[in-house]
Amino acid sequence: MSVSPKPDPVAAPAGLPASVAAYIAATNAFDADALMACFADGALVNDQLRDYWGTDAIRTWAERELIGDKVTMEVVKVVDHFGDVIVTAHVDGEYDKTGLPGPLVLAFHFAVRADKIVRLIILNNRAPDSSPEIRSLRAALAVRRPPDAAPEA
Predict the structure, then answer these.
(1) To the nearest whole number, what is the mean pLDDT of the chain?
(2) CB-CB contact of 111 with 40 (8 Å)
């Protein structure tokens, strides 16, 4: 028996704002220029609780976190919320997956004005009873620990 290859990421569903559909397509194509064309000047991206204000900071983030890590999005749900769009997607790529669930499901909260993305907040939603992300906690503790100290148990 042979294993079938993973299907290509799902195209953006019809009815999305053009800039959101273009963001998804550009992400899946690893196309930084097309991705940047989706954003308004002065836009905000918040990813992993870090703010990136303006197109210069957003380009640096996108080239490192999306294009560099070959991130793909497989859209699984779209919700219109008072004029903003929340896209839930399975995310994959060549990033460090240590401690992350498989598949990684992220919620992309898009605010669009005048056909450009003005705000994108990316969240790793969890079930109400799930544990905090240990990878981040351990990384934070490691930064504060003196280099000659024994690791914490």
Answers:
(1) 84
(2) no
Residue 11 domain-assigned (yes or no):
no
Residues with Cβ within 8 Å of residue 77, at least 6 apart in sequence: 86, 87, 88
In-domain check, residue 115:
yes
For residue 103, whether the previous peptide bond is cis, meaning omega lies within 30 degrees of 0, is yes
Three-point CA angle 50, 117, 82, nearest 5°: 95
What predicted TM-score, i.e. pTM, was given to this entire model? 0.76
User: Does 15 have pLDDT greater than 90?
Assistant: no
149 domain residue, yes or no: no
Range of the domain at 70: 18-144
Distance between CA atoms of residues 59 and 39, nearest Å: 10
* Count of structural domains within the chain: 1
CATH number for the domain spanning 33: value is: 3.10.450.50
Rounded CA separation 11/35 (Å): 15
Residue 142 tokens read as 């490691």
